[in-house]
Amino acid sequence: MPIETVNTQQQHLGKTMAKKITKPRPWTKDDVRSLKTMAREKVKTTEIARKLKRSLGATHQKAMRLGVTLGARRKTKNSSTAPPRKP
Description:
The structure is a single chain. The chain has a domain at 26-70. 53% of the residues lie in helices and 0% in strands. Helix 3 crosses helix 4 (56-66). It is extended and about 70 Å long. The longest helix is centred in the middle third of the chain and has 12 residues, at 29-40. By secondary structure, it is mostly helical.
């Protein structure tokens, strides 16, 4: 049975699925302090987000607004040891 049919039948029977509504939680001073501290200690971004109970996107956005750098890009084998190319 197609999904559209199931949804239509549920609506006719008065059974609608509940939608999860998320409301943005304001950043507290403690949240910002923790974010800055963990960023300074070079904690992984995913771990920072998990500890703050925030999404990865929200954590990145807040850090960007605060001017905080999160996670350095990893160096590849060739980028740090390879001699410069000649034209």
